[in-house]
Structure formats: C-alpha cells, structure tokens
Amino acid sequence: MSCNGDHATPSEIFLLGQAPRGFRGHIEAIVVTDNASGLAVDELERRLIELGFTEGAHIEILHEGAIGRDPIAVRVNNATVALRRREAMAIRVV
Amino acid sequence: MTAVVAGTGIRRFALIGTPNSGKTALFNALTGSRQKVANYPGVTVERKTGALTTSSGRSVNIVDLPGTYSLRARSPDEEVTRDVVLGRFKAEEAPDLLLCVADATNLRLSLRLILELKRVGRPLLLVLNMIDIAKRRGVEIDTDLLSRELGVPVVTAAAVRRGGTEDLLSRLDALASLEGLQPSSDPNWHAPTTGDLRAGQREADRIIKLAVKYPAKPDTLTTRLDAVLLHPVFGLIFLLVLLFVMFQAVFTWAQPLMDLIEAGFDGLGGLVQAYVPDGLLQSFLKDGVISGVGSVLVFLPQILILFLFILLLEDLGYMARAAFLMDRIMGGAGLHGRAFIPLLSSFACAIPGIMATRVIDNPRDRLTTILVAPLMTCSARIPVYTLIIAAFIPNKPVLGFFGLQGLVMFGLYAAGIISALAVSAIAKFVFWRDDPTPPFMLELPDYKLPRPRSVVMGLYMRAKMFLTRAGTTIFSMMVLIWFLASFPRPPAGATDPAIDYSLASIIGHAIEPLLAPIGFNWQIAVALIPGMAAREVAVAALGTVYSIEGGKEAAEQIGQALANKWTLATALAMLAWYVFAPQCASTLAVIKRETASWKWMWVTFFYMLALAYLAAFATYHVAVAFGAG
C-alpha cells in the first residue's frame, strides 16, 4: 500500500469520490480503506491501478450520473473511465 | 531476418489486448470469413480462431483471446487468456507468437500489459492499432524509440481501413517463415502485486513520455458527443428514444422483406399443391415442411435488424455509455451496470446474453443477471407476438404517428423489462440481502465509426446460426408435429376434420384442462409442446395444426385462422404467457452450463412458468370481464 499521501498536508487533499464535476487535478495516492464492495482491499487497489489510476496521473471529472450524481466519468491522462463515487473514495487527489 | 525455410507446421499466433483495443476488428481484418467459433474444453468461453495465408503461402492459425488488462485473471474469460498464453491448456500448446494489440490513441494500459507479457517469455509483437485515428488527431508516435524502450518489435495497423494491415501482414509473413520463433527468455511470470502493477505503469508512463506526443486537446468529437449522450437528463432521454426507434425499426423496416419471403413460401406451397398428388406426401411437404419452416424463416429480417442495431452500438462505443447511464437505475433493482450489455443482447437472444454475463466478475451479480436474462424479449418471441398482434390488434394510429400495433409490441417489451427488474430486486432481497454491492468500473472508449465489413460479418454469423437452427431443430420439430397431427389417419367415412382423430388431438385434449383456466384451447396445448424446443416453433406448430385441421381449402393464412378461432381474450392471454414462458430448451441448457448447476436451471424454469401462468390467467380473466371473451 502506498503512503505517498503522508507528504501533503491534509487540507490540500481531496477524495475523488467527493470532488464535483469539472474537478481537475492529479492523483496523490491510492489508499483503499473501505471494502464495502466486497472485494479485498488489495484487489480493489489492483483494479484501480489496472484502469490507470496511479500516482501522478492527471484527473478530470467529466460527467456524473442522474441519481446521486453517481457514477462519475473520469478522464485519467488520455482515457476515460467510469466508476462509482464509493470506489473513487480510495483515490486521493490534489 | 534470415530467410530460413521453416518446417511445415502451421504457426499459431494469438491476439491479446485490453478491452476496446480494436482486437476483434483486427481479427476480422486478418482472417475475413475464415473464422470458426467453438468452446474451450470444459469451460463455456468462446474460442474464436481464424486462418490466414501469408503472402509467401504460409498457413497461420490466429486465435482471438478474450480482452484483459492483466494476466491476473478475474473472470472465466480472463482465465482462458492467461491459460492459453502460459500454455496451461492441455489441449493446446502455448502460441508461437503473441500479437499484443493496442489502441494507438490510448496506450497507457496496453503498454503496462505488454510489459507484463514480456515476463511470459514468448515471442511478442506489439500492434499499434487505429494508427489512422491517432495520426488524424495529431498523436505522434516514434515507433522505433517505442520498440527500443519496450524491447519488443512494434508494427502499426489500421484494422478498419482497406490496406491498413499491409505492414502487419508482411511482418507476420516474415515471422511465420522464421525457424527461430522460440521463447526469447525464461518465463518468470507471476500474478502481479499492487507494487508490480504500479512499477509497470510507471515504466509504461516513462516510455510514453519519451516516445509519444499527444495533442493539447483530447478527441473533440467524443467530448462533444458525450456532453449530450452522457448528460444526466438528455443522455437518458436519448437512450430511451434510441430503444424505441430500434423496436419501431424492427417492425417497419422488416415488413417488405417479410412479405417477400412469405410470398415465396406461399408460391412454393402452391407448386407442391399443383404438382404433388393429394395425399400424405403432399400434406407432409406443404403443411409440415413448407408452412412450418417458412413461418419461422419469415422472421429472419427482423432478427437481423435487431442484431444490426446491437452490433452498431457496440462498435460505435455506445454500449459502455449505456452501462454508465443505467448503473444506478439498474442498481436500484439489484443489478450491476455492466448487466445492461448482456440484457440488451438478450433482446436478440438470451443465449449470447447469458454468455455475455461473463463480463460481470461478481458471481452473485452474474447469477442474478442470468436468472432474469430470459425475461428480456428475445427475437424468438417476435414471431409469436407479431402473428397474434397482426391478427387481433387493429393498426390504427395513436396520437397521430404511433401505430397501435407498435405500441402493443412496445408494451410487451416493457413488460419483459419491468418484470426482469422486479425479479432481480426480489432475488437480491431474498437470496443476498446483506451482501455488499461490487464495484462498477469501466473504460469509456472514444467513439469510432463502425467498419461495415465487420458489421456485415457479425450479421452473417447470426443469420447462419438462425438458419442452421431453422434447418435442424425447428425442421425436426415440424416433422414431429406434422406426424402427431396426421396420425392415426381418420377412419373411412369420418365426417370430422382429420386432426380430431390424431395423436395431437389426444395429447392436446389431455393437457387442455390445465390450460383452460388461462383461456388456451387444445390446439395451443399441442403447439406449446414443441414450442419447448424454441419459442418460434409454436407459431409454426399452430400453422401446421390449423392447416391440417382445416383441410386444403381452409385459410392459407395462419393469422386469419387464429382470428377466426380464438377470442381476443385468448390472444391476449397468449401474449402474456409468452412474456414469461420458459420455453426454450437451449436457454435452459446454457443456464445449466454457465451456472454449473441444475438447481439454477430449475429455479429459472419454475419461476418463469409460474409467472407465465399467473400472467396469462390474470390477462384472460380481466379481458373476459371486459367482454373480450
């Protein structure tokens, strides 16, 4: 598990899952704590990385769903990925 | 490369790549119509292979492996990819060459995959697909540098362009002729940890920074389209309108072709009547073979139009968007957003739909989707619906431009969808109330214009499957029905129609009491039995039963026969029955195979049967109460 998040002060750090549409930034760290999805913490982290969510990647929230502003469509560097806000909580962005 | 003349063995190349890398388009471009679809032994994953003869006359066998982001294997499909690549399949050796296909406009994930594939130690070739789109968008790729940094040979291709695979073909020719296609290094692949994945991605990003220049702006067309198509309100409206147009098209566009096919079979029946002497042979050919098979074949145009829409939407890249839009809505019913694609395919046929549930990696989500997939109105119900609607529902305009018949049809589709959502919500509540909801994560690929040849090929495969079915299952069922309806022959001097003395009549009358409460007569009872083999057979069976019953001077048109013999209430009950009826032996067999359990097959069968009976019962009695009996 990455600990990169420790370098930044907490006030600068956002969780992607809470960010509004139009948010732009880059990934500070992937920190999976919650396993509400029923996946092992490690497994969720691997899946996020496989879809390109790695430290330093550029992020922009392009679209959000009609119900509960969920799921979100996120631009990650040069690709677009859809995911739910719940899983996006594991992605710390600045 | 040394021009060594190699042994005579056929080379085996495997296509591997991330989802949306255009791997299947490339496969189609390389192998054309020389494709075979089978199953891997022991699993129900489709094994797509094709043949290719290179310019110097070498035979190459190409296998199209299921798309994956890693060899880690999270689903049965991905396990197949891993096992083939690692040579773990007993039935086949590891491929001689791995063709790793990457979308040139979106290299990040593909490059990480190829770095992982290097550890497998098999000969590798990176194919930068969609290079034409990348160039048009101003993406500059230094392929030599890319190849050097990766340590893997690189070739560019544009699968959807004519001549777009020339470089690749000549490279494949050279590789196929090469004696020394040996594993380059010792295999040291192991399932990557989060650390491995991170390191791989970091290395991939480093190489991209060196070798690839992206334009400042992303694809503007996709951005502009998504502004509308993924809009929380307009996007959903568009999706609904799209579905509505799709079903209206199935009914209006297909009509001229259907009339043509119908006329053809009528003409054939007329020829038989004119040239074959009266008697058993004439009855067999005319009532059994021609009217039976003809009444099913006539629906080929509708099925093809439906598949045309599904193939186009898939190739355009819209399907993933639909999953995004539907995720929360389906989530409310306990379904995964990804279930949208299998369920939409189930409108064509539940069998590919159920097989497509493999993209859902959570076993329970997958099971729920499998359970409700047969409720989506598959194309085999179209014959039944169309026949009854045409015979009983007047085609008067509603609100000026919708036909009443089309609206009833839309209602039947809606009934299927709503019941599927309801059943899955109940299943979720009853079976796995406390389970966590698994994640929804999906790449949204850029929109791409579909390649006509690829679409035509997909349609051709579907048509072939349908015609094979019509030629085998449906045909043999028709012969059986004709036999049951014709034997034993009526005694000499009999006054009633011949069918009243037949086995069909005996069987039908035996079951009739069970079906009488839902308004079905004995002829329907007879038709429902072979209808177990496939829904559309019921139409053909009704045709045979009524045509034998009526004798040769009776109405040629089965629709007219029904309009004369059924009440409106019976017709409506029959429609309601078919929304739910589990009448498709192949679907049940696929459910058994995919869930690897008899239990879920029987659960599906009985819950659908119960729903069908209840729905038909309620419809019949309500209709009778309104005076339609």
Mean pLDDT of chain B: 83
Q: In what order do the strands lie side by side in the largest sheet of chain A? A: 1-6-2-3-4-5
Tally of strands of chain A? 6
| Structural class label of chain A | alpha+beta
Strand order in space, largest sheet of chain B? 2-3-4-1-5-6-8
Dominant shape of chain A: globular
Organism (chain A): Pseudolabrys taiwanensis
Protein name (chain A): Ferrous iron transport protein A
Domain Ferrous iron transporter FeoA-like (chain A): 14-94
GO molecular function, one term (chain A): transition metal ion binding
Describe this protein with a few key phrases:
heterodimer; A: 94 residues; alpha+beta; SH3 type barrels; six-stranded antiparallel beta sheet; 2 helices; 31% strand; globular; disordered N terminus; B: 629 residues; alpha/beta; seven-stranded mixed beta sheet; two-stranded antiparallel sheet; 26 helices; elongated
What report would you give on this structure?
The complex is a heterodimer of chains A (94) and B (629). Chain A is α+β, with helices and mostly antiparallel strands and 94 residues long. Chain A is built from two helices and six strands. A six-stranded antiparallel sheet of chain A has the order 1-6-2-3-4-5. In chain A, a hairpin with a 2-residue loop joins strand 4 and strand 5. The two termini of chain A are 19 Å apart. Residues 1-9 of chain A have low confidence and may be disordered. Chain B is of the alpha/beta class. Helices cover 58% and strands 8% of the residues of chain B. Chain B has helices at 23-31, 76-85, 108-118, 131-136, 143-150, 166-177, 194-211, 220-229, 234-252, 255-275, 280-297, 300-316, 318-332, 340-345, 350-356, 363-372, 381-392, 404-431, 452-486, 503-515, 522-528, 537-550, 558-565, 568-580, 585-595, 598-625, and strands at 11-17, 35-39, 46-53, 59-64, 97-103, 124-129, 140-141, 154-156, 212-213, 397-398, 402-403, 441-443. The chains are: A alpha+beta (94), B alpha/beta (629). Chains A and B meet through helix 1, strand 3 and strand 5 of A and helix 3, helix 7, helix 8, helix 13 and strand 12 of B. Strand 5 of chain A pairs antiparallel with strand 12 (441-443) of chain B, so a sheet runs across the interface.
